[in-house]
């Protein structure tokens, strides 16, 4: 157990930092227009963020050495991608993903 | 998805993504309890900090009785991608009032952001307060209830990993990435695939010497630069 004050101070200050990084750009950009180059740059944010979050889950980090493969997540990605191509339904994709990983853990790949 | 930006469509279109973070929310609750936080502290962290992965980082630093400043710095670095996300969504919310922008920004997450970027491919690049706000609210309360549930049941169940729930979020990103690539019309598909490939390479190399939490931000910036350069040179 930690003192409530210690934890609560952390919650409030980290919350403020998170809040500021989300709200500040929105408020500022209401005043200033982004130039064309920046808009073009930002148009790549969705695919890079999604790819980065996915690919990061496919590896296990060993700082100072090459990362190793996270076999479970890599194998579970295959039926997930297939279900995306076949159904284009987010619900189906997520459910297939969950079942795939649970199945892989049960049979122990 | 369709071109309607109504509350009803927001509910229907956000529901599938909820599965993606219920598992992580429960996990944050269980991990928080196991690390010595009270149920109230777990809930407050989810409702006030509301940072997803950053909450795991904060909890791991609380265990080490870290000072406040390093925690704030880590929070900023892990969450700095939200600055990019917020900048990227800003042009679509320009016509909404400052107050509504603040409200939308406060509850914006990776998940509702990528969902809205998918949505605009069907709405001729339009987005509005009603749709995004409902999507945000669903995500917010799901997260709060899931972490509360995790904190309450944490003493009785082990890790939720054995149910495969930890892959839900990854599956959601795979799905949204695929849907984004096939529906995005401004950027050629070949260029998008190149950027995805570049991201894979950058993640692999980056993992050698940069902690994964911060690497996401760096790779996002690099990936966008790569995309812009390729677009100007070859496309």
Automatic annotation (TrEMBL), chain B:
InterPro entries per record: Brnchd-chn_aa_trnsp_permease (IPR011606)
Main location: membrane
Membrane-spanning intervals of the chain: 12-31, 37-59, 71-92, 137-157, 163-179, 191-210
GO terms under cellular component: plasma membrane
Pfam families: AzlC
Compartment annotation: Cell membrane
Keywords, comma-separated and alphabetical: Cell membrane, Membrane, Transmembrane, Transmembrane helix, Transport
Family of this protein: Belongs to the AzlC family.
Species classification: Bacteria, Bacillati, Bacillota, Bacilli, Lactobacillales
Membrane topology: Multi-pass membrane protein
Protein name: AzlC family protein
One of the GO biological process terms: L-valine transmembrane transport
